[in-house]
Description:
By secondary structure, the protein is α+β, with helices and mostly antiparallel strands. The chain has helices spanning 9-17, 21-29, 70-84, 95-100, 102-113, 117-123; strands at 39-44, 47-53, 58-63, 89-94. Helix content is 39%, strand content 17%.
Amino acid sequence: MLPYNKKLVKNAQELRKNMTPEEKHLWYDFLKNLPMNVRRQHNVENYIVDFYIAEKKIAIEVDGIQHTSDENKKSDSERDAALARWGIKTLRYSNKSIKQSFSAVAQDILDNLGIGFEELKNRTPHPPSKLGPPSPTGEGKNLRKENGK
């Protein structure tokens, strides 16, 4: 079992109630429909990750503009390293990529989970309405910054 900070439980509950528009979009239009348990605002060690898929040990972070500052990039890198020590892979997506290239973000998550789009459609009783197959032109390539790289 992963360690968590009991002092952050209330904060995580508040964050679940007050998700950003991009977090809501990712949750309601995609992650909620995955054939595995996805936890919102999950407490790991001294951090709260936006989404966590325990079965695959994958954390998904939705980054606003504040994450582009040098100070926050350093903090994000330290956080990703701390999660990696527990075997957790962090996938980071900007608000902009979720707004402008949602299908590509969803496809990247599926790729990291080892699930194909067709498999998801067949396994999900109500497939995500706003999700289509990946763009044949490669829209959204390099949207994700993985573990600070």
